[in-house]
Amino acid sequence: MIPKKVHYIWLGRGQKSNLSHICINSWKEKLSEFEICEWNEDNLDLDAIASENRFFAECRKRKLWAYMTDYIRLLVLYREGGIYLDTDVQVLKSFDPLLEHSCFFGKEAKEYIGTGMIACEPGNSVIKKVLDFYQDDIWESPLFTIPSIITHILNNTDLADTVAVYPMEYFAPYDPWKPYDENCITKNTYCVHWFQANWIDNPGLRRFLSVKHIKNPVVKSAKIVKSEIGAIFRRLKLR
Fold first, then answer.
1. What would the DSSP string read from start to end of 89-143?
2. pTM of the model
3. Partner residues linked to 165 by β-bridges
């Protein structure tokens, strides 16, 4: 059974937004029996995590907070179990009916598993498989966002049968690419992911993620140049 713990991560010591406060208050109201744990620089040994995982270390060096939290959420869930929530996820009702699962996710789009809400028992085999991907496979793969990585693993292993995957209406009914429609929230909706970007990463620093798997230095340089040119044209187009 999934323990009654909610985990969230707050790195960088910045101020929380009004939306974050609204969402965290919704957890306290709707999940009153749950322990709520904030993970930050004071209770995480970031040096130890960086020494154990090169991808995390490279993201930390570049202050790519969002990608650091991707790894930390998996680590915390694997060790402690519970429910991970992004700070822009508003809870509408208790997760109690779902806690009998060993692990559950929700779709964020037709193609992708959402990761603003992840729930599992401690030591879950799916979460372990994702952690293993971050250890080695990530350097051989073009994937670097956590939704694409988890989707890839569930689509390419026999572990998919061990988890529950719910439709978008359960945990991420709101589509940020479309005008908001209040009808997206149904009787099945447990929470809403509002997709607020708490970290705005420097695109130049983030480009290393898109070329990390390329071994040929000439090809890698060409891809970086192409990316830089594309960014310039996008900026000119916005003027």
1. EEE-S--GGGTTSSEEEEBSSSS-B--SEEEE-TT-HHHHHHHHHHHTGGGTSS-
2. 0.83
3. 105
| 179 pLDDT tier (thresholds 50, 70, 90) | confident
207's CB contacts (< 8 A; 6+ apart) are: 224, 227, 228
pLDDT tens, position by position, 102-156: 999 999 988 899 999 999 999 999 999 999 999 999 999 989 899 999 999 999 9
Which of 154, 16, 223, 94 lies closest to 83, judged by CA? Answer: 94
Taken in order 176, 37, 11, 125, is the CA torsion positive or negative? negative
Candidates 128, 143, 176; CA nearest to 67 is: 143
User: Domain coordinates of the chain in residue numbers?
Assistant: 5-199, 202-239
HSE-CB of 68 using CA atoms within 13 angstroms:
24
Residue 213 to residue 116: CA distance in whole angstroms: 26
Question: For residues 134 and 183, what is the distance between their CA atoms, to the nearest angstrom?
Answer: 37
CATH class of segment(s) 5-199: alpha beta
Give the pLDDT confidence of 41-97 residue by residue, as tens digits: 999 999 999 999 999 999 999 989 999 999 999 999 999 999 999 999 999 999 999
